[in-house]
Amino acid sequence: MSKIFRNLDRFRVKPGNDFRLADNDPGWCGDDDGLERSERKKLAKRALREDVKKLTEAQELLYADDSWSLLLIFQAMDAAGKDSTIKHVMSGVNPQGTQVFSFKHPTAEELDHNFLWRCMVDLPERGRIGIFNRSYYEEVLITRVHPELIHAQNVPGANPDSEEFWEHRYQDINAFERHLTRNGTAILKFFLNVSKEEQRERFYDRIDRPEKNWKFSAGDVRERQHWDSYMQAYETCLRRTSTETAPWYVIPADRKWVTRSVVSGVIVSTIQALGLKWPQVSEEHRRDLAEARRLLEGEGEGEAGAE
Description:
By secondary structure, this protein is an alpha/beta fold. It has helices spanning 37-65, 82-89, 108-111, 117-120, 142-145, 148-151, 163-182, 196-208, 218-224, 227-241, 256-272, 283-306, and strands at residues 69-76, 98-102, 129-133, 185-193, 248-252. The protein is built from twelve helices and five strands.
């Protein structure tokens, strides 16, 4: 990891009540070390390449060890770069060991279950990396900005005007994630922190470039009108649900090269800290290997004699 991003802990939301989203700069692009931005960008891209290689090796070990799974959760405002971050950071990972799920508006079946259910069924099994592009956190984000959505869930006694209702949801999420980590799922949660100004420029880009028109929805601009409400919902959510075992990381997202480098660094360092080991080979297996070698060598000797 490049030294300009050496302090990954700076992006982590510490458990407690003193977190303020305004203290996190969406345009951050490295510590003040005297380097030009262009040089920082080169170093960040180099760091990403190194981390992609490390992640490729770490994923193989994760699969071989077969004791932990890894769940990566990405949340952000529209156009913050979730898709491209996932694409670049996971570019070297074996697709067989990775699962990506995007959660849109809930279906009728999903609404007839508890708000965690639809994500529960897509959790990664041991040895795999699961990626949630949006997640159950929508249930304390978009529903908090649009509380009328709660009424469609038909939850007995649900009152989105009550702070107690939301507190119960935070508690349920924390309990759920505590259960997962106790049973071998490491959780990393990333909020891609894009500024309102940068989001506007990316919307213009989607409108002006024909090849990107398909990515634009008029609904995205309508949701932008609720920006302040979303920021408040995110701030409260991050403060109430960042724990020691399932931390939130607030990632600067105005510059995609920063976003990708920081996210990759956090993922690699987390897997490396799991204490994973290659499986031990039993004596019986070693004897099988020796016998297989003997048979293969015998084939070679037979072919040489035939010549």
